[in-house]
Design brief:
The chain is mainly alpha-helical. The protein has ten helices and no strands.
């Protein structure tokens, strides 16, 4: 039996995450990755044909890892509790994975996405479509149970948790447990309030 590879794709992508966390997306080059991982350049090029392939793999792995828990929670029942669970899951994932949270926060454009291969571009489009489809389905169910419109629901599902974690991860500070609690309570308050605010005020 041959020996297992010394530097797997995940090992190299983990090193790429560390580079992003320390120096930003521009620091992720093939030579910098080899140094960070302690791998020969040949190992890096064996796993990733070039820098665009590396950056695409880093982005796609990060998005898929985040989506795994978030989308599973969002699809559950009952709708309101599932939405709150999805928000909590997303914040906790970012708290446990601050480097990867920085990758998501940087956005795809930070990873030279216009130079990706057609295959990687299509894969990214599929992850985007998967998220949009899940959010549409969740909003459709939530509108019936909360009286909130789609814009309000997306604020709860996306903007609220993102805003809560961004200042922590960009400052290199851990997301605290009380931050998770604040986000969950705010989401619950907004989703459990029936009707829209100006109608209730009248």
């Amino acid at each position: 039996m041959g020996r297992p590879p010394r530097h797997t794709s995940d090992d190299l992508l983990d090193a790429a995450v560390r580079l992003v966390a320390a120096h930003g997306a521009r620091a992720v080059t093939m030579s910098a990755l080899a140094r960070e991982a302690g791998a020969p350049s040949g190992s890096v090029y064996h796993r990733f044909a070039d820098r665009p392939a590396l950056l695409a793999a880093l982005w796609l792995r990060t998005v898929r890892r985040f989506h795994t828990g978030y989308l599973a929670a969002l699809a559950g029942e009952p709708p309101v509790e599932s939405a709150i669970a999805a928000v909590e899951t997303g914040v906790r994932w970012c708290a446990r994975n601050p480097g990867e949270a920085l990758v998501l926060n940087a956005g795809r454009t930070a990873f030279d996405h216009t130079s990706w291969s057609a295959m990687d571009t299509a894969a990214a489009a599929r992850t985007d479509a998967e998220l949009r489809s899940a959010l549409r389905a969740a909003c459709r169910r939530l509108r019936q149970h909360t009286g909130r419109d789609t814009e309000e629901l997306l604020l709860v599902l996306i903007d609220l948790p993102l805003a809560a974690i961004r200042r922590h991860i960009e400052a290199g500070k851990p997301v605290r447990e009380n931050t998770v609690g604040v986000v969950v309570r705010a989401a619950r308050l907004l989703l459990n309030a029936k009707g829209n605010d100006h109608e209730r005020a009248e």
